[in-house]
Structure formats: C-alpha cells, structure tokens
Amino acid sequence: MQRRVIDLGSVMDELLEIRDLALRIALEVAPIPATAQPRVPQARTMAIASKSTDIDLVTELDSATELAITRLIMAERPEDGILAEEGSASASTTGYTWVIDPIDGTVNYFFGHPHWCICIGVTDAEGDAVVGVVHAPALRETYVAAKGHGAHVIIDEEWLPLTAAAEAPLELALLATGFSYDRERRLDMARVFAALVPRVRDMRRAGAAGLDICGVAAGRVHGYYERDIKPWDVTAASVVAREAGATVIRTGQPMGPNLTIVAAPLLAETLRAELAGMGVVD
Ligand code: IPD
Ligand code: CA
What we know:
eight-stranded mixed sheet, 15 strands, binds D-MYO-inositol-1-phosphate, binds calcium ion
C-alpha cells in the first residue's frame, strides 16, 4: 500500500496564505454594506425580504456582499468549495470550503446598530474549521486566525495577539447568547435563559454570533452558548476562539437543532453540564 506523505509545513503555510486572502477579501468588500448601512431609520431605503420566518431578514446588501466575496474567492481559488448563507454553493476539489456569512447580525445592520460583521471561514477536507476572519466595519475591528498560527484582533492596523480566553466560575461568568428566529423555539430558549441568568454575573444578547464568539477570545465575555446556529454563523469565529485557547463544543445537526458552547475549557464543561441539566440535549 502506498503511503501518502503530508508535508505539514506546507499545509501550515497554505493556511496562512488562505487567511491572508480571506482578510484581503473581507476588507475589500466591506465598503459595500458599510457605506449603505442606514444610521437613522429615515435613511433606510434598502430592499428587504423575509426568510425562514417573518422576523428573519435578508437585505439586498446581504446578497450583494455575498456575491462580491464569492467572486473574489473564485478568481483566486476556483477549485475550493463555497457554502454561504444567502445560497452560494459549490463543491470543493481541494478539500477546502469557504463558509461565509456576508452580514452576521443582519437585524442590527438593518436597524442601524454597529454590531454586525462579515464572517469568512474555511474548513478543510475533514470538515475542521482552519481559517477565520471576522470583520466588523462599524466597530473598526477585525479578528483573524489560522489553525496553528494563533488569533489576532486588528485595531487601527495593529495586530494584537489574543492568547487567553479567561476562566471564570459560573457565578462570576459574563455570558453571551442569542435567540432563534423561530418564535416557538424561542420559548424554550427563554426558559433556559431564565434559569441561567440568576446564576451568572450577567448575560448579553448583542445580535451577532460571530462577534459573540470572538468576544470570548477577546475577553469581553467569558462564555457563549446558543442553539440552532448555522455553520456560517460559527465557522470563522470558532477558529479565532480556539486559537485563543477556548474550547468550542458543537453538538446536534449542523443545519438543524444544535447547541454551540464557546468558553475557556473548564467553563465550557461547566456550561455543558448545566445546560444538559436544564434539558438542553440538542
Ligand atoms: C444571526 C445572529 C444572531 C443569532 C442568530 C443568527 P444573522 O445571524 O448571529 O446573533 O442569535 O441565531 O441567525 O441572521 O444576522 O446572519
Ligand atoms: Ca447573515
């Protein structure tokens, strides 16, 4: 039997090249949604439609940004696959697949809040997330990471390393979470929220999963949990969180009922046990 020799050094270098390409693309397309974001309701003219439910929005800028991202990827790496929230999809022949949310935090974006981001992640042939770029134009922050190369946040062109997602006992933990667009499903999420909130320092619902997860890497929250989030919400940011020392737990179906937990290792296990105790078994 022939042994396949994998040159780990060149795989590592390729990840850095892909990371830098993802960063270039995120920065290049950002003006498309950023310049169109309404700052006040009176300025809101963009076309919108609803998706999975009446409160799940898509704007014309989500679609335009996704198209711009996928065109740039295809121009540079036509053999890679694509999986994107607004429907772009193609198969991979290299093993790498780009997993894209053109605007994470669309509701924030539409209502003029600054908390939204462009998420560009890449998975490898095993489905592992290996590259992540989360760019938040209105916050002027960009999170970048590649497996084995650490995580950074770029602020004013300065690359600051993110090295240690912090541990905290549950009762002192500041947690982030989010809610589904499905009103029925929200009832159960609210039940879990209500059981957890008296037991922790506090909870945040900021409205963009990508930034919530990067927030664990940056020490802005201790932990994050959410149910039913999709691969494009989590892929890019999970590389940032992992490279900063956090544990990323994802159970259930990638596109169906699921649970994602991101926190420093001990807190992640505590949260997993607590949520299981509350009957969250997605
Ligand atoms: C949503 C945001 C939100 C989370 C939802 C996601 P979208 O993504 O990340 O914080 O709670 O589950 O669907 O729709 O704005 O791309
Ligand atoms: Ca989105």
